Every structure is written in C-alpha cells, then in structure tokens.
Amino acid sequence: QVQLVESGGGLVQAGDSLRLSCAASGRTISRYAMGWFRQAPGKEREFLAAISGSDGVTYYADSVKGRFTISRDNAKNTVYLRMNNLKPEDTAIYSCATGPNYLSGSVVRRATAYNYWGQGTQVTVSS
Fold first, then answer.
1. Which residue from 38, 37, 39, 40 is spatially nearest to 50, judged by alpha carbons?
2. Which of 19, 91, 93, 123 has the most other CB atoms within 10 Å of its CB?
3. Other CB atoms within 10 A of residue 86 CB
C-alpha cells in the first residue's frame, strides 16, 4: 500500500522560507513521478512542481518558478519542496502525489495523472 505523508507546513511571515517534506512508503520514489500541488480555499487545485521518475527531470509552474525547488532524497524515499520568499497568496494546503514513471511534459501538471495523494500540510503566510 502506497502512503505519502507531508510535513513542514506552518505559519510564517511574508519573505520567509519553508521546506516541505513528503515521506513515501510502499513505493520507491526514484522509479515514479512525484508532484506537489496546492489548494487554497475556494480555488482549484494548482500544480506547483514535479520530478519525473525515469530521469529526474523537474517541472515547475510559472507562478513559482525561481522561488520553489523540488528535490528528492532516494535514500530517505522522501521528496522535498523548498519554498523561498513566501507571499500571502501562497497560503494553501500543500499536497504531494505520486504517479506512473512515464509521466513527463505537460502530463505531469495534471492532478488526474497521479495515483496516490498525501493528506496535505497547511502553509499560512502572513503579511
């Protein structure tokens, strides 16, 4: 059974940084695509970043490119999302997901392409 557990969220001030973690069990993350999404109240789920399973290629939404960085530690079977220069509009529930290893290109940006999801972690950025 695949399980994803996010951690690292919290209440921060604008301009601060956070690193979210997504610990996986039941699946070797280096062999599968991993993605980060967020959902703010009243808004649709938004793609943030992904890393492909086959070659480790990373993908980012334009809205976070240059501020967010996705990475993975294969030894810990954990994916991270480093978030810098946080803004109040970054306030949301952040979730990680895992999908088939062949995900790439535009497909990695689709939430429907992922098979398993974590419960999410709340990030609140005050102004």
1. 37
2. 123
3. 21
